[in-house]
């Protein structure tokens, strides 16, 4: 591989939860002058449309059952393009450092002598809760918030004790496919079956839906409403707050 005299920079850019209006100014400016964009599959098309014509796009979309490109190969791709002298916008849904594997990609770049810059984005948790008007913290309900990945290997072996309950909010990323196991695990750890939950699908996008219920019925609710990714699960007393009439209208309109 031929290296350029000066490597390009890899920009790890958070695309936010979907709505382009939620991009940071830095992210928008980088997109509007990008020549090479390596993007996740969940990045909204409206965000990609900000990139100038003629730019190269490389999709490295991942799903639960299929990965277009393994993570090691993505790391190698970023390094290879940068060493060839190209600036690379690595566009990730949400924030690069919250379940975005941005840390791994930054380490790979640094190890290869490639300059890297991290551009934070509105995380899925913050974007979804704001769009649904569900406060993750509230003086009367929660002073602790935890973020967990719901599709990690060995879910039953994970220690989630104390992450959810009175005075706490638990936000679960990538938990739709494992909703039944998540509910069973939390109830086995002592969380009340009646604990309020909310599932937020396509947060901040025109097709956003919010469904709410109790922990014991989480799996049935996900199946009944045919919830699909991208979706976030919020568990805690705060989910009973927000504009309930507005949220109910969103659910009814989607049915």
In short:
The protein is of the alpha/beta class and 255 residues long.
Count of DSSP-assigned helices: 8
Main β-sheet, spatial strand arrangement:
3-2-4-1-5
Largest sheet: 5 strands, parallel
Instruction: State the order of secondary-structure elements, H for helix, E for strand.
Output: EHEHEHEHEHEEHEEHEH
Identify the CATH architecture of the largest domain.
2-Layer Sandwich
Radius of gyration equals 19 Å
Helix content: 25-40%
Give the tally of structural domains: 2
Keywords for this structure?
28% helix; 2 domains; 5-stranded parallel sheet; single chain; 255 residues; Cobalt-precorrin-4 Transmethylase, domain 1; alpha/beta; elongated; Methyltransferase, Cobalt-precorrin-4 Transmethylase, Domain 2
Topology summary:
Layout: E1 10-14, H1 25-32, E2 36-39, H2 45-48, E3 56-59, H3 71-83, E4 88-92, H4 102-111, E5 116-119, H5 124-131, E6 142-149, E7 167-173, H6 179-188, E8 196-201, E9 209-214, H7 218-224, E10 231-235, H8 244-254
Parallel strand pairs: 1-4, 1-5, 2-3, 2-4, 6-7
Antiparallel strand pairs: 7-10, 8-9, 8-10
Please provide a written account of the structure.
- This protein has helices at residues 25-32, 45-48, 71-83, 102-111, 124-131, 179-188, 218-224, 244-254; strands at 10-14, 36-39, 56-59, 88-92, 116-119, 142-149, 167-173, 196-201, 209-214, 231-235.
- By secondary structure, it is of the alpha/beta class.
- It has two domains: 10-119, Cobalt-precorrin-4 Transmethylase, domain 1 (3-Layer(aba) Sandwich), CATH 3.40.1010.10; 124-254, Methyltransferase, Cobalt-precorrin-4 Transmethylase, Domain 2 (2-Layer Sandwich).
- Strands 3-2-4-1-5 form a five-stranded parallel β-sheet, with helices on both faces.
- Helix 3 crosses helix 4 (102-111) and helix 6 (179-188) packs antiparallel against helix 7.
- The longest helix is centred in the first third of the chain and has 13 residues, at 71-83.
- The N and C termini lie far apart (54 Å).
- The relative contact order is 0.15.
- Belongs to the precorrin methyltransferase family.
């Amino acid at each position: 591989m031929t290296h350029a005299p000066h490597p390009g920079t890899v920009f790890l850019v958070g695309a936010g939860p979907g709505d382009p209006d939620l991009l940071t100014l830095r992210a928008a400016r980088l997109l509007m002058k990008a020549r090479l964009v390596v993007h996740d599959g969940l990045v909204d098309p409206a965000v990609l449309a900000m990139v100038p014509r003629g730019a190269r796009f490389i999709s490295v979309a991942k799903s639960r059952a299929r990965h277009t490109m393994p993570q090691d190969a993505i790391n190698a791709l970023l390094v290879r393009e940068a060493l060839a002298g190209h600036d690379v916008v690595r566009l990730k849904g949400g924030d690069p450092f919250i379940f975005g594997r941005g840390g791994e990609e930054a380490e790979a770049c640094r190890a290869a002598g490639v300059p890297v810059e991290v551009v934070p984005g509105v995380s899925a948790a913050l974007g979804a809760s704001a769009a649904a008007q569900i406060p993750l913290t509230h003086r009367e309900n929660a002073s602790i918030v935890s973020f967990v990945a719901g599709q990690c290997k060995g879910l039953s072996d994970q220690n989630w004790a104390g992450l959810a309950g009175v005075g706490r909010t638990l936000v679960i990323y990538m938990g739709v496919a494992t909703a039944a196991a998540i509910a069973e695990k939390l109830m086995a750890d002592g969380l009340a079956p009646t604990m309020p939950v909310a599932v937020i699908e396509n947060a901040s996008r025109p097709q956003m839906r919010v469904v709410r219920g109790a922990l014991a019925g989480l799996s049935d609710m996900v199946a009944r409403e045919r919830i699909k990714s991208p979706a976030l699960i919020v568990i805690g007393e705060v989910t009973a707050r927000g504009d309930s009439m507005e949220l109910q209208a969103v659910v009814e309109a989607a049915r």
